Amino acid sequence: MTGPAMPRYFFDTIDDGVLTTDSTGVMLADPDAAREFSVEVRDESGTGLFAAELSFRSRRLAREA
Q1: What are the DSSP calls for 11-38, one per residue?
Q2: Helix H segments across the chain?
Q3: Number of domains the chain contains
Q4: 41 vs 47: CA distance, rounded Å
Q5: Percent of the residues in the chain that have a pLDDT greater than 90, as a whole number
């Protein structure tokens, strides 16, 4: 027997004023799990260039009805 499916969260990014919308998303237990995460940057060949660990204070956005 399986439990309920974990919800999927999407991480849109803005780089130099350009919005990139995340169409894949990541499954997380809850929104609070998105407050700490890491990012790894690779070049076209797959070679890792650098990694960043982010931890931040956040506020929930109002949901539209």
Answers
A1: --EEETTEEE--SS-EE-SSGGGGGEEE
A2: none
A3: 1
A4: 9
A5: 28
- Rg of the chain (C-alpha set): 15
> 51 is in which domain, residue-wise?
8-55
SS3 32: helix
On whether residue 1 sits in a domain, the answer given is no
> Residue 7: its pLDDT value, please?
86
Q: Which residue has the higher pLDDT, 1 or 59?
A: 59
Which residue, 30, 32, 8, 11, is CA-closest to 22? 11
Structure tokens at 48: 């890792």
